[in-house]
Amino acid sequence: CIIYLAKFDTRNVLLVWGYGWRGTYAGSLFLEDPSNWEAYRNAHLLLLRWKDTNRDGFVQLEEVTVEQCA
Fold it and tell me: Which residue, among 68, 63, 52, 53, has the nearest Cα to 29 in the 3D structure?
């Protein structure tokens, strides 16, 4: 999943773009947690990975990791 946050003129732009619905859902779950906003407050671009570690087919926040940030 790619999460992009930027300013365009006077507007804030937030893009959450996942590979399929699970990727988008993983990004949304990640953004739901306020501690992630604090941890990456200076980043404007995040690349997330979801790995279904318990093989249940459902996205859980514990399975989402940050691969890159900028």
Answer: 63
